[in-house]
Every structure is written in C-alpha cells, then in structure tokens.
C-alpha cells in the first residue's frame, strides 16, 4: 500500500496553505452569483496575461478544448496535415482526428522527450498546415528551429503547453519567452495535477495575434461575437468563476512552486545520477525546466520491476506513456508515420515518473532514493 505521506501529487497539503484565501473568494462568488464569465474570470485572465507577457489569454473549459479551438481558429480543411509528436498524451492527436485533419507523427529526442526537429522538414508536404510542438514534462521544445522551419514553409505553430507553464526559452539573440507564447497560438490545461491546476477542469489559449484571439473567443462561445448572432460554428467552452478564483490565487505562488519542484529535482539528481541502472532527466540547452514530471529512463528491462518494488515500499510512480500513439487502437488507421519512431518506441518501454510536487520533503525524497538504490543493489 502507498504510504499517505508520499503521493504523486499532494493537492491537500498545498490547499491548506491558502485555504482562507480560497474560502473568501468562493464566498464572494456565491454572494455575487456571477458563476459564468464573472469578475474572477476576467481577473485571472488579466493576471495570466501579465505573468506570461502575452497580449491575449482566452480562458476555456479544459486543455483538450483549448487544442481543438486553436485548430478551429486556423480554418484548416479536411485532410490537412498537422505534425505532432508520437510521444505525448492522447489529446494532442485526438483533436486533430476529431476535426477531420491528418496527424503526422514525428519522433522525439531521446534525451529531452521533445519533438525531434531533425525530422521536421522531411515530414512537410503540400498539405501540411500546422506544427504542434508539445512542451513535455516541463521544458520547452527547440522553438527557434521549429519557428524558422514553420516560417520558411508558411506553416502555423500551435504550442501544446499543458505541462510546462512557467518554463522559459532563450533564443539565439538572447530574447527570452515563456512556453506557449512563441507560436501563433499556445494552449494550457489547468487539470488539478498540473503545475498550475484548478479544482476541476480548466484551460486557456494564448496569442499575440489580435485576429486569432477574437476568433478563439468567438469559438469558445458558440461562434458568437454579439449575443445570439452566430458568425461561425463554435463550441461551449468556458472557465467558471470558481475555477478562475482558484487559478488567480495559485498563480501568485507559481514561481514558488517552480522553485520547489526544481529543488526536488535537484535532490533526485544528487542521489540518483550515479546509478548505472537509470538515466536521470536531461535539461534542454535553451529551456528552463519546471518539472511537471521527474521522469527516469530505466535500463535493461527493469522498469516494470522497479515500479512494483517502489509500490511495495509505499512509493507511487507512473508510466507516461506506455503505448506509442501510432500503436493505439483508435489511431492506427488515422495517423501517418513516414519516419522512424524508434526513440518513441524505446521510451515507452523505459520511462518511469517519480513523485513530483511542491510539498515533497527531504525525508520523503531520501526514502524514494534509498528505495531505488536498494532495488539496484539486490
């Protein structure tokens, strides 16, 4: 059984730190009855725009909706192609298929887990309309290269930033930008376990393009700009006031959360770097890492046995992701796979994510590391 003191994500202890702030905000919402598109939603939107240094934030109901709305705003045609990593959560490919587009999957870098840019130009055809880099596990893709290739071929870039809010990317000229703000559109998920998570579902889109931002606001609200006048097909995807209040309050602590996660990752590094049976996470050269996940690569077929051993000693762990997208039953006939996906296939057999959250103590981290060392000493 998992010990209550060690969890993959400890939302309860985190909540206790600002419970009084949340209760006051919730009381205000109940008193005002402004449950949808109320002042809390606007306040969070403006706070996130300021934090990310982006012109437009459009809140929505969840991260998957954000991806769908982003692609709808680009006005692609059925059969148009979107390049997306094979090693990612299903939502990235799911929305492409739901809209009638063709997902073209690309392999990932075996060190950073992010899109292998060396394959990118080989995948571009006359039907390629968008590239969807996924900033996986907490750090940015090679955005300078991606943006250069996209510009060369007049292709739009939609950043899936569900896991890396707060990460920063440094361009060759020294410019620094937050993940999710570099392409035409960025998307966010506020699922409770995310680095900035609400207490239900929530999401957002970001853009510095005023026209695209207006399109996405309209799509979120049934295609309306003026009430009951529908200019296009849309969806019903809104962030409610309670979730916005949670996010507004927690956003004030996001940099503190990042530092706590980075400190936990450094603790893991210091204890585990010397073990020959695993490979610790690699930091991308131009990106900071906010450690949504701390993901090991376990060598020589020991991954599943190590996971079971940790569980026996009260330590949870997770496999993100066990099956490559091109091998998922739902996508076998949908995705196009014109390049080798050897790194994706290999990582699905090797990755193991350890507990990572803002409340991990040094004792808990040492217990996790002691247990991993004990497994490999057998």
Keywords for this entry:
378 residues, alpha/beta, 7-stranded mixed sheet, 3-stranded antiparallel sheet, 13 helices, 37% helix, 15% strand
Largest sheet geometry: 7 strands, mixed
Beta fraction: 5-15%
Structural class: alpha/beta
How many H/I helical runs? 13
Shape: globular
Question: Between the first and last Cα atoms, what is the distance in angstroms?
Answer: 22 Å
Q: What order do the SSEs take from the amino end to the carboxyl end, as H and E?
A: HHHEHEHEHEHEEEEEHEEHHEEHHEH
Mean pLDDT across every amino acid position: 96
Radius of gyration: 21 Å
**Numbering strands along the chain, what is their spatial order in the largest sheet?**
1-9-8-5-4-2-3
Helix content percent band: 25-40%
What is the number of strand segments?
A: 14
Question: Spans with pLDDT under 50 lasting ≥5 residues?
Answer: none
Please, could you describe this protein's structure?
There is one protein chain. With 378 residues, the protein is α/β, with parallel strands linked by helices. Helices cover 37% and strands 15% of the residues. The protein is built from 13 helices and 14 strands. Strands 1-9-8-5-4-2-3 form a 7-stranded mixed β-sheet, with helices on both faces. Strands 12-13-14 form a 3-stranded antiparallel β-sheet, with helices on one face. Strand 6 and strand 7 form a beta hairpin. Helix 2 packs antiparallel against helix 9. The longest helix is centred in the last third of the chain and has 19 residues. The model has no long low-confidence stretch (mean pLDDT 96).
Ordered list of secondary-structure elements with their pairings:
Blueprint: H1 11-17, H2 19-32, H3 39-52, E1 56-60, H4 63-73, E2 81-85, H5 91-98, E3 102-106, H6 120-123, E4 128-131, H7 143-152, E5 156-160, E6 168-170, E7 176-178, E8 185-189, E9 203-207, H8 210-220, E10 224-226, E11 229-230, H9 241-251, H10 254-272, E12 278-279, E13 294-298, H11 303-312, H12 342-347, E14 351-354, H13 362-377
Parallel strand pairs: 2-3, 2-4, 4-5, 5-8
Antiparallel strand pairs: 1-9, 6-7, 8-9, 10-11, 12-13, 13-14
Helix pairs in contact: 2-9, 3-9, 4-5, 4-8, 10-13
């Amino acid at each position: 059984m998992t010990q209550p003191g060690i969890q993959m994500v400890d939302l309860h202890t985190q909540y206790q730190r600002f419970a009084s702030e949340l209760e006051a905000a919730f009381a205000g919402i109940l008193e005002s009855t402004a449950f949808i598109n109320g002042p809390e939603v606007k306040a969070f939107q403006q706070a996130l725009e300021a934090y990310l240094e982006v012109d437009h934030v459009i809140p929505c109901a969840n991260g998957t909706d954000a991806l769908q709305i982003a692609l709808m705003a680009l006005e692609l045609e059925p059969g148009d192609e979107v390049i997306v990593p094979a090693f990612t959560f299903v939502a990235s490919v799911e929305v492409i298929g739901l809209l009638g587009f063709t997902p073209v999957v690309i392999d990932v870098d075996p060190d950073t887990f992010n899109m292998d840019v060396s394959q990118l130009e080989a995948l571009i055809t006359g039907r390629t309309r968008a590239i969807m880099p996924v900033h996986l596990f907490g750090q940015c893709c090679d955005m300078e290269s991606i943006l250069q290739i996209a510009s060369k071929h007049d292709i739009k870039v939609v950043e899936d930033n569900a896991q890396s809010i707060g990460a920063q990317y440094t361009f060759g000229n020294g410019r620094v930008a937050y993940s999710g703000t570099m392409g035409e559109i960025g998307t966010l998920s506020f699922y409770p376990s995310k680095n900035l998570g609400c207490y239900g579902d929530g999401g957002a889109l970001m853009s510095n393009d005023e026209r695209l931002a207006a399109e996405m606001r309209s799509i979120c609200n049934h295609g309306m700009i003026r009430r009951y006048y529908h200019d296009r097909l849309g969806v019903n995807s809104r962030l409610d006031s309670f979730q916005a209040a949670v996010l507004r309050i927690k956003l004030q602590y996001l940099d503190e959360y990042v530092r706590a996660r980075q400190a936990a990752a450094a603790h893991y590094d210091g204890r585990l770097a010397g073990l020959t049976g695993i490979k610790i996470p690699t930091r991308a050269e131009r990106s900071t890492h906010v450690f949504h996940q701390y993901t090991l690569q376990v060598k020589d077929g020991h991954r599943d046995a190590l996971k079971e051993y940790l569980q026996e000693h009260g330590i949870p762990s997770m496999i993100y992701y066990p099956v490559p997208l091109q091998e998922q039953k739902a996508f076998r006939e949908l995705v196009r796979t014109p390049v080798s996906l050897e790194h994706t296939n290999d990582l699905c057999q090797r990755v193991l994510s350890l507990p990572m959250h803002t409340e991990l103590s040094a004792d808990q981290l040492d217990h996790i590391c002691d247990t991993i060392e004990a497994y490999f000493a057998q």
